[in-house]
Amino acid sequence: MQTGKPRAALLASPGMGHLIPVLELGKRLLSHHGINITVFVVTGDASLSQSQLRKVSEAAYDLLDVVLLSPVDVSGQIDKTTSILTQIAMMVHEALPSLQSAILATEVPPIALVVDMFATEAFSVAEELMMLKYVFITSNAWFLALTVHAPNLDNEVDQGDHINNQRPLLIPGCESVRFLDCFEQFLRQNEVYFRMGTEISTADGILVNTFHELEPQTLAALNGTRKLGLVPNAPVYPIGPLVRPVQPDLRSDALSWLGMQPTGSVMYVSFGSGGTLSAEQTTELAWGLEKSQQRFIWVVRPPVENDSAATVLKRNSSCTDFPDYLPEGFLNRTSKYGLVVPMWAPQAEILSHPSIGGFLSHCGWNSSLESILNSVPMIVWPLYAEQKMNATVLAKHIGVAIRSELLPSQGVIGRSEIEAMVRKIMVDKEGEAIRAKATMLKSCAEKALSKGGSSYNALANVAKDFEIRMQSQNAKAD
Ligand code: UDP
Predict the structure, then answer these.
(1) What protein family is recorded (predicted)?
(2) Hey, which of 65, 79, 199, 345 has its CA 20 to 30 A from 174?
């Protein structure tokens, strides 16, 4: 029997983009709503240690009980064509027995299992252990709408029309999805993705890392579909934006350099934890930044041809040499106004620095939310996963970003266009409305998260459901 406040188990699938928001969710459930939390982490990396996990978020780590499940190895089951989504789902599948044992071994059995969106197969463990089952979508509501709607679509008529005839995909009550923007796993008709959509709809509740003011129409549609008897058959709770917290005492060369630049003068350029560009695109980007004459910090990776997600799931990728794949003389010519950082930079701290005025981003959803919370307008440069949908949410639905008409997957974006986009976001009059929108959204986001705000209240409702379940279990046990 549980006494006091209920305990919930959270499950994070492999990848920083999942672990970071799951830890933040755990932190908020505990510190704002008193729910005790155990976080289970799936990994395929046998060398990943508790101390490395701790580095992801010390604050979350100190508060929460974090359990690293035994590493899983799916290398024998995959080949070059296996998508990242399928690989993650396979790893979650392999981790299910150790998850079940680990939950059974907890001193106080958790009342609910909250899994991130790639780990819905773990609902079977929740069912077996009679726990509530929740899913946490670490992306936006529009992507959730596509995902839960996908299994409902008629294979031949709707999917065929979108995939073969490239017509926009209609989702009840939401903006339709352009063929060019559609999630790549939908277009490939990956059955793992469609299964996730079906499983998400069986949850007791769906948490989304967004907030009401960001996606009002989509959220209304998602909660309204229930009345029409359509999926998702569960309440949708916008509880974001939850992002990695800034470490105030962190020191790095990039932060020291930023400290010497004027307010709002620096464009930060990064393609997330896994994004890579081709050699030609890397050259064009270098020239575009140089020609713009705007200050920049660029997190640069060695070019890779035809694989924009080349470093996803490769935690150990490293490159400490100064890059020789940049145009000759680039580092010298830009040394007075640019800083090139190999592989990885402290992004949360950089984006919150007052010297940052723009972000050229692959628009992974965590990066997008970090930008919004710091009122930084963006140039969106989607590479893989659901990023093309994120780019449209940011540039078209919300108006906090600009983008090239040419998607990076369609060809090389040229230096003159890059130069123009950088200048538009940083200094040109044309970018004023976008900069103003970014400032406005930051205050909406902060309000949503503060006590009594929409996201705060949504998470309070989830916590209430956990308490009700605990009380009814206790009543049965009496
Ligand atoms: N990140 C970072 N430094 C880097 C690149 C990424 O700290 O050089 C962090 C970033 O702040 C974000 C996460 O890694 O919290 C990336 O998540 P996102 O959803 O944006 O993209 P993904 O990497 O999952 O594609």
Answers:
(1) Belongs to the UDP-glycosyltransferase family.
(2) 199
